[in-house]
Specification:
The chain is of the alpha/beta class.
C-alpha cells in the first residue's frame, strides 16, 4: 500500500489507480516516482498477474506532467541530467515488465504523463473534450526528459512528433488515434473495460501505426532525414529568431537520437534536458509558469459565492459597438459557446461583424478542428441588433465604442435603468479612467473594466479593471467571464491607461522621440526586435493605429504632464492622413494589408535626415528602461497588485520577450543596481523622465530582488 497508488486485481489484470491526494494535479515528483518504482517491483514479482492497466483516480485528469517544483530544485545541469535518467529508468520499466501494460487516458495527459503512456505496451484514450495529449516542456524552456524525444518519433514519425515537441500542441483522443499515438479512442464509460481487454493481449511484434508513403520515403533513409533536419532547423530559426535554445536541443535529441539505440538516445535526451534546466531562458519561462498560477489566487476569488450559489458562470452577454474590437469580443464569446447579443446602429458594421465571426469559426472547420454543424451552432449564439433592446436584462454588457467619456456615460445611463439585480456593465476602454465613466452612474458598484487587446481573437491577455466603488462580486463574475473566454487575466486598479497601456505609452513615446531626433524607422524597429520584441515600436504604432495611439498618449500626458509629453512629430504625420495598417498608409507602405518598405516621406514631414548612428545598447535602454520604470511606478501606485501581474501583463499583452520573463524578472536577472546605474546615465543625458523609481533605488541599495525565492 502506498500513498498515491491503489492496486486491485480483476481477472488477472492489475489495475493501478494513481491519485495525488496532496495536490490538485496528478504530477510526477520524486516521491511519487519512488513509490511507482516500488509498485512496479510488486507487479513484476506477482505471477498471478497477466497484464496491467494504469489509470487515474482524478476526475478529469490522467497526469498533468512532471512536478515543476522538483525540476526547479536542480542546482546544476548534472543534477538535472541524473534526475532525468532516473525518471527514464522508472518509466522504461513499463516496457520491461514482461506483461502487457495499458495507459487508460482520460483528461490531461501531458509531459511526463504522456511519456509514461509512451512506455506502455498499449494506449487507449477517451473521446471526451477534456482529454488532451501533449508534450508542453518546450514552453518552459526545456525538452521532454523522460523519453518523449525518443519514443514519440519512433512511434508516430519524426515530422509529426516534432510538430508536437516544438510547439507543445495538444491533441484530443480522436486525433491521437489518427496519428497512431493511441491505439483506441472510446467513451469514458467503457474506458476501463476496453483497457482490460488490451491488457490481456501481448502487443504483436512490429505492430506500429501506419504511415503515409511520403513520410516513409522521407524518414526511412538517412539522406531524407538529413534534409528534414536542415529544413527543420531553418524553420526553428525563422520562428524563434534564435532566442530559445530548447528548440535546437529538441531537434538534436530527435534527429541524432533516431540514429542511435533507444538507450543512447535517452542518454542524449537526459544530457540536453539537464543543460536546458539551467539556462536563463528556462528560468524565465518557469517564472512565467509560476506567475500564471500566482495571479489566479486573487483577492476576489471567493467573492460572489453567496450572491451566486449556483456558480459565477455567465450565460448571456451584450456587446455594444460592432467595430473591430466589438467584432473580436463577439466572435470569441460565440466561439466559447456564450450567448451574445451585439448592437450597432450601422447595418453594414453588423454585416462585417457577422462575416468576420463566420470566417474565424469556419477556419476551424477547414482545419478539421470543428464539424460544420458545430460551427453553425456557435454562430447561432450571435444575435445582431440595431438597438440594445433588452440588454439591461442580460448578465453582462460590454461596451466597445469610441474613446469618448460622454458617449460611454450616455450608454451606461440608458441601460442601467430597470436592469436586473445582478447586471454588470463592463467598459472596454483602453485608457480612460473607469471612475470617470461611472461617476454619473446610479450604481457604480456594477461598473468594471474589461480591457481587451487587439486582435481579440489572438491576443491572450485581459485586464480586469477595478474602480474604487466596483463591487467584489462584480469583479469575481467578470473574471469568470474572462476564464470562459479563455483569456489570461490580470486584475488591476483603475488608473489612466491602467497598467499595460500606461507602461507601453512611455516605450512608444521614447521611440517616437528618437524618430524625431533622426533615428531611422527600420533601425529602431530592427534593434528592438533583435532584443526580443515580436515587432518594433514604430510597426506597433502602425498596427494599433495612429489615431488610437495619439488618444492614449494624450491621456497619459494629461495624467502625468510633468514627465510625459506626446511627441511633437506625431502631429504632421497624423495630419497627412496616416492611420497605419487599417488605411494602408502609415510609417510603412502597405499592400493588401501586408507591410512593405519604410515610407520615406515621413522623414520629410518631420524634417529629419534618417541616421543609424545611435548606439544600439542606448537605443534599447531608452525604450526598455522607460517601460520598466513605469512598471515599477504602477506597482508603487498599487495599479499592480504584485510584480507577477506586471510580468504576465507585459508578456501576454504587448509581447515583452518571454525568454526574459517580463520586466520584473528581467531586472532580477540584470541586477537592480545595474538597472539603477543605467537609468541614472540616461537621466543625466536625457532628463528626469529616466529618474529611477524610489522603490527601485531602495531595493537596489538593500541588495533585494523582486522574486527572491526563485533561482
Amino acid at each position: 500500500m502506498t500513498h498515491f497508488y491503489k492496486v486491485t486485481k480483476e481477472d488477472k489484470i492489475a489495475i493501478v489507480t494513481f491519485e495525488r491526494t496532496d495536490k490538485e494535479a496528478n504530477t510526477l515528483g520524486e516521491v511519487v516516482l519512488r513509490e511507482l518504482n516500488h509498485v512496479l517491483n510488486q507487479l513484476a514479482e506477482d505471477n498471478d498477474i497477466s497484464g496491467v492497466v494504469f489509470i487515474s483516480g482524478k476526475k478529469d485528469q490522467f497526469i498533468a506532467g512532471a512536478d515543476i517544483e522538483d525540476i526547479a530544485k536542480f542546482k546544476s545541469a548534472k543534477d538535472a541530467e541524473q534526475g532525468s535518467l532516473a525518471m527514464q529508468e522508472i518509466l522504461h520499466r513499463f516496457s520491461k515488465l514482461g506483461k502487457p501494460t495499458v495507459a487508460a487516458i482520460h483528461g490531461a495527459c501531458l509531459g511526463g504523463g504522456l511519456e509514461l503512456a509512451l512506455a506502455c505496451s498499449w494506449r487507449i484514450a477517451t473521446s471526451d473534450e477534456k482529454t488532451k495529449l501533449g508534450l508542453p516542456e518546450i514552453q518552459l524552456g526545456f525538452i521532454p526528459g523522460a523519453g518523449g524525444t525518443q519514443r514519440l518519433p519512433r512511434l508516430i514519425g519524426i515530422a509529426t512528433a516534432l510538430d508536437m515537441i516544438l510547439t507543445g500542441k495538444r491533441v484530443d483522443g480522436n486525433k491521437a488515434v489518427k496519428m497512431g499515438l493511441v491505439d483506441a479512442c472510446v467513451h469514458q464509460n467503457i474506458l476501463l473495460r476496453e483497457a482490460k481487454k488490451l491488457a490481456a493481449q501481448k502487443r504483436p511484434a512490429g505492430l506500429v501505426p501506419k504511415k503515409a508513403l511520403a513520410q516513409i520515403a522521407l524518414e526511412g533513409n538517412l539522406v531524407g532525414r538529413k534534409i528534414m533536419a536542415i529544413k527543420a532547423k531553418e524553420a526553428v530559426t525563422e520562428k524563434t529568431k534564435g532566442f530559445y535554445p530548447a528548440s535546437y536541443k529538441a531537434l538534436d535529441a530527435v534527429f541524432s537520437g533516431f540514429e542511435m539505440s533507444l538507450e543512447k538516445g535517452l542518454a542524449l535526451e537526459a544530457k540536453h534536458f539537464g543543460d536546458l534546466t539551467q539556462t536563463s531562458e528556462s528560468k524565465s519561462l518557469v517564472h512565467l509558469f509560476h506567475a500564471s498560477n500566482a495571479i489566479k489566487k486573487h483577492p476576489y476569488k471567493d467573492s460572489g459565492k453567496e450572491r451566486f450559489p449556483n456558480g459565477l458562470k455567465v450565460s448571456s452577454v451584450g456587446v455594444i459597438g460592432g467595430g473591430f474590437m466589438g467584432a473580436g469580443i463577439t466572435t470569441v464569446l460565440a466561439d466559447r459557446d456564450v450567448r451574445v447579443s451585439v448592437s450597432d446602429p450601422n447595418k453594414d458594421a453588423l454585416g462585417r461583424l457577422m462575416k468576420s465571426a463566420r470566417d474565424f469559426i469556419y477556419k476551424k472547420v477547414k482545419r478539421r478542428r470543428l464539424k460544420s454543424f458545430q460551427a453553425d451552432s456557435k454562430l447561432a449564439q450571435i444575435c445582431p441588433q440595431l438597438a440594445p433592446t433588452g440588454f439591461n436584462q442580460l448578465d453582462v454588457v460590454i461596451e466597445s465604442v469610441f474613446e469618448e467619456i460622454s458617449l460611454k456615460q450616455k450608454i451606461l445611463a440608458g441601460l442601467e435603468s430597470g436592469c436586473q439585480k445582478d447586471w454588470i456593465f463592463a467598459s472596454n476602454t483602453s485608457a480612460l479612467p473607469l471612475k470617470s465613466i461611472a461617476e454619473k452612474s446610479a450604481s457604480p458598484e456594477r461598473v468594471v473594466g474589461m480591457h481587451f487587446f487587439s486582435p481579440v481573437e489572438k491576443m491572450p491577455l485581459l485586464e480586469v479593471v477595478v474602480a474604487e466603488k466596483t463591487a467584489p462580486w462584480a469583479v469575481a463574475r467578470i473574471v469568470e467571464l474572462g476564464n470562459q473566454m479563455g483569456k489570461t487575466i490580470i486584475i488591476v486598479k483603475d488608473s489612466p491607461g491602467f497598467y499595460v497601456n500606461r507602461a507601453l505609452s512611455f516605450y512608444l513615446a521614447e521611440a517616437s522621440m528618437m524618430l524625431g531626433e533622426g533615428v531611422a524607422i527600420d533601425y529602431l524597429d530592427d534593434t528592438l526586435t533583435e532584443f526580443g520584441w515580436p515587432v518594433g515600436p514604430i510597426t506597433l504604432i502602425d498596427e494599433v493605429g495612429l489615431d488610437i495611439g495619439m488618444h492614449v498618449l494624450k491621456t497619459m500626458e494629461a495624467a502625468w504632464p510633468d514627465r510625459f509629453k506626446t511627441p511633437d512629430q506625431f502631429k504632421p504625420i497624423a495630419e497627412s492622413g496616416r492611420l497605419g495598417r487599417k488605411n494602408g498608409k502609415g510609417f510603412y507602405h502597405y499592400e493588401n494589408g501586408k507591410r512593405g518598405s519604410v515610407d520615406e516621406e515621413i522623414y520629410s514631414l518631420i524634417k529629419v535626415t534618417p541616421s543609424r548612428s545611435l548606439n544600439r545598447d542606448e537605443l534599447i535602454d531608452r525604450c526598455v528602461l522607460g517601460y520598466i520604470n513605469e512598471s515599477i511606478l504602477c506597482l508603487e501606485d498599487k495599479v499592480l497588485p504584485s510584480p507577477y501581474e506586471g510580468d504576465i501583463g507585459s508578456v501576454f499583452g504587448v509581447g515583452f520577450p518571454p525568454f526574459l520573463g517580463g520586466p520584473f524578472k528581467y531586472m532580477d536577472a540584470q541586477g537592480l543596481r545595474n538597472i539603477v546605474e543605467r537609468m541614472r546615465r540616461l537621466e543625466s543625458k536625457y532628463g528626469s523622465r529616466f529618474k529611477p523609481a524610489k522603490s527601485l533605488v531602495e531595493m537596489a541599495e538593500r541588495g533585494d530582488r523582486y522574486f527572491a525565492d526563485e533561482a
